[in-house]
Specification:
The complex is a heterodimer of chains A (115) and B (120). Chain A is an all-beta fold and 115 residues long. Chain A contains no helices and 12 strands. In chain A, the strands form 3 sheets. In chain A, strands 2, 5, 6, 10, 11 and 12 form a 6-stranded mixed β-sheet that branches. In chain A, a hairpin with a 4-residue loop joins strand 8 and strand 9. Chain B starts with a strand and ends with a strand. With 120 residues, chain B is mainly beta. Chain B is globular and about 45 Å long. In chain B, a hairpin with a 5-residue loop joins strand 5 and strand 6. In chain B, strands 2, 4, 5, 6, 9, 10 and 11 form a 7-stranded mixed β-sheet that branches. Classes of the chains: A mainly beta (115), B mainly beta (120). At the A-B interface, strand 5 and strand 6 of A face strand 5, strand 9 and strand 10 of B.
């Protein structure tokens, strides 16, 4: 079985300050991990993914995430928040066990950016 | 590349009617397509997985006679909500995995923009 926990349902930061969105996972198999962003009334957009290559993954819009197997974490960070980063962020896990492409979504974290 | 579209983007219907939602991969062939449901301020819940030319696999608790899925080609999957009721009102999102050589599919799922269904 696999599960994903996003530890914060809401995160509020000031523009220009760092962003940290936390994600922990559990998986019986070697996982692939993803972060997606959902802006209001828009579809999900892939930010970045980890698939067993480099543990530090760089994504679009200045985001990056580090896979830490010992901590079963895949936290998303950005050095400096921008107003346009305000959105809902989902951490997603996929098991690599030939059982298909089923994704498990975390509960989501709403990022608010204050001017 | 890897664009997924959904049609319609928003539909309002009367209780008891059926509604069909289309999901298309515009610039790639999709081995597998997925249908999700998202309630307000909540995460996505997988409803079913469909592979082209075969029956869909439904998640536990999802009524297959209520939510009919057809995946007739490598670029089109449809979800029909039969005899819709107000509790079926939700945001329905599809995603697709790109087909690779040898019948494999990509790790990444590409998501459509979603369809908002309101049943009166």
């Amino acid at each position: 079985a696999q599960s994903v926990t996003q530890l914060d349902s809401h995160v509020s930061v000031s523009e220009g300050t760092p962003v940290l969105l936390r994600c922990n996972y559990s998986s019986s198999y070697s996982p692939s991990l993803f972060w997606y962003v959902q802006h209001p009334n828009k579809g999900l957009q892939l930010l970045l993914k980890y698939t067993s290559a480099a543990t530090l993954v760089k994504g679009i819009n200045g985001f990056e995430a580090e896979f830490k197997k010992s901590e079963t974490s895949f936290h998303l960070t950005k050095p400096s928040a921008h107003m346009s980063d305000a959105a809902e962020y989902f951490c997603v896990v996929k098991m690599n066990n030939n059982a298909g492409n089923m994704l498990t979504f975390g509960g989501g974290t709403r990022l608010m950016v204050k001017p | 590349g890897a664009v997924v579209s959904q049609h319609p983007s928003w539909v309002i219907c009367k209780s008891g009617t059926s509604v069909k939602i289309e999901c298309r991969s515009l610039d790639f062939q999709a081995t597998t397509m997925f249908w999700y449901r998202q309630f307000p301020k909540q995460s996505l819940m997988l409803m079913a997985t469909s592979n082209e030319g075969s029956k869909a696999t439904y998640e536990q608790g999802v009524e297959k006679d209520k939510f009919l899925i057809n995946h007739a080609s490598l670029t089109l999957s449809t979800l029909t909500v039969t005899s819709a009721h107000p509790e079926d009102s939700s945001f329905y999102i599809c995603s697709a995995s790109r087909q690779l050589a040898g019948g494999l599919s990509t790790d990444t799922q590409y998501f459509g923009p979603g369809t908002r269904l309101t049943v009166l």
